[in-house]
Specification:
Number of strands: 5
Strand order of the largest sheet: 1-3-4-5-2
CATH topology: Thiol Ester Dehydrase, Chain A
CATH architecture: Roll
Order of helices and strands: EHHEEEEH
Number of helices: 3
Strand content: 25-35%
CATH superfamily: Hotdog Thioesterase
Distance between the termini: 23 Å
Shape: globular
CATH class: Alpha Beta
Length: about 160
């Protein structure tokens, strides 16, 4: 699976919208969260793996840039890439787009830590998980490591 892989597709429903008529920020986070679990599964961190190996993932940082509004009936897609793999943490980016017009709607950069579920301490990724994450790694992660994200990445 290459970088910038499709990790979520969905629709904005009327109950996702607030009193101003656009999708409320809580639903952006929810859709990004669903994409995050797809990323984890794609690299090998499935529910089964986490249970058998007594592991978990914990989000420790999330930054979001909102670019356009979404309304009821809009169809969205989220494409994801890994931008940094460390001993026990992973940084990745999700780009949410209008699935029809392909406009960038929002971008988020997240950092998640791999943990031992008993000790609640960080622990190293297994080699096969690191290899899975490497398959989603962007060719040049450096521009993605700054915040706010450069405008050239948000087109």
């Amino acid at each position: 699976m290459p970088a910038n892989a499709l990790m979520y597709r969905g629709t904005v429903y009327p109950w996702h919208c607030d009193h101003m008529g656009h999708m409320n920020v809580m639903w952006y986070v929810g859709k990004f969260d669903e994409a995050s679990w797809q990323v984890f599964a794609a690299i090998g961190l499935t529910r089964g793996y986490l249970r058998v190996h007594n592991r978990s993932m914990a989000g420790v940082d999330q930054r979001i840039s909102y670019r356009r509004e979404l309304h009821a009936g809009d169809v969205v897609s989220v494409h994801s890439s890994v931008i940094e793999i460390r001993n026990s943490s992973l940084r990745f980016v999700h780009l949410m787009r209008d699935a029809v017009a392909n406009h960038l709607i929002a971008a988020t950069v997240l950092t998640a830590v791999h943990m031992d579920s008993t000790t609640r301490k960080s622990c190293a990724f297994a080699d096969e998980i690191r290899a899975g994450a490497a398959r989603l790694l962007v060719p040049d992660p450096q521009p993605w490591l700054s915040w706010p994200l450069p405008a050239s990445l948000l087109e």
